[in-house]
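Example protein was shown:

_____
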Amino acid sequence: MKAFLIIFMVLAASCAHYSKQEKIESDPLREKYNNYVKMYLQKYPNYIAHEEDGDCLVFAGLIGTVDDIPIDITRFKFDKGLFLRRIITLPDIYEELWENGERKSKSQCSRDTYLSVLMYLWYSKHLPQETRLALAQEIWERGIENDWVMCKGEVTRTKFSKSLIGTLAHLIFRLGGEAHKEKDSSLYTFAISGFETGYQRHLGANHALLRADLTGRMPKGIFAAIAQYRRSQPHNPLYQYVYHKFKDFDQTETLDILLTSQHWPDDRLPNSMDHCEKWLIQRDMGKDWEPCLRHQGGDYFVNWKIDVFDEVDGESIVEHSGGDWLYVADKLLKSKKKK
C-alpha cells in the first residue's frame, strides 16, 4: 500500500508539473491576446477597422478569422457573389468605389479582397457552415456567369486567377458542397516563387496557408518559397508561423516575436511611433517598420476622428488597430489548443 501511495504521489507531482509548465508557456500569449481584443473592441465597437480604407475588406476578412472579433463579412456583400472593398454604408458606394469617390480605386474589388473573403469563409466560425458554403457557392456562380471578372475595374485586378479558382473549388468541397473539377485539375494549382516582395509576399503566405489547410498538404515547392520568405523577413511573425506549422510545429520563434517585439507593445495598441505601417506584416523590413508622424493628405488613409490621439510639432501620431498581431496570435493559440 505504501509503495502504491509513493507511485501515485510521483505521478500526481509529474502531472501537476506538466500543467504548470503548460500554463507558464501559454498564459503570456493568452493574456496579451485578451488585452489586444479588449483594446481593439473599445476602438472599433462595430468590429471593423480601417472602415474607409480601400483595402478595408482585406483587413476585415483576416481579422474576422479571430474568434473574439465577430465580424460579419456579409456587410461587404453588395450583390450575389459580389463583395466590395469597403463596408456597405452609402447608397452610391458601388459607383463611388470605382470612379466618383474622393478616394478612388482602380477597381471595386480585387483578387486580394476575395482571397481574404475565402480565408474568412474557411477559418471564421462567426457564421454557420451552411451560410459560409452558400456564400462560397454564390462567388462561384458569379465567376462562372462573368468569366471570372467579378466587378468593375481593371481586369488585371478583378479577374480571378486559375489558382484562386482552384482554391475556391477546394473551399466549396471542404464546406460540404460540390466537387468541381477545378479542384483537382493541374491547371488550377497554386504556385509562388519565393522571390515575391512586400504585399505580394504577404498574399503568397496567406494563400499558401489556406490552400495547405484545405488540401491537407503543402507541396515541396510551396514550402521552399515559404522558407525563403522566412529567411528574407525573419522578424515577420506570419512567415515564421506558416513555416514552422509545416516544418516542425515548433513555434518558439513566432511566440518570441509576438511577445517581445517592440512593434507590438503589451499594454496598448501599436502606433506610428512604433512603426509607420498600419498592417505591418504585409510589408518588408525598411521604412514601413520605422517610426513616423502623419499629416493630412497623401495616399495613406487615416480616420482622423478615430486614429489620431496625439501630435508632435503639428504632425500626428496615429494609432493602429493591432489586427495584424491578433491575426497571427489567434492562429498560434488555436494550434496550441489542437496539440
Summary: The longest helix spans residues 2-43. The chain is about 50% helix and 5% strand. Residues 78 and 84 are 7 Å apart (CA to CA). Residues 31-189 form one domain.
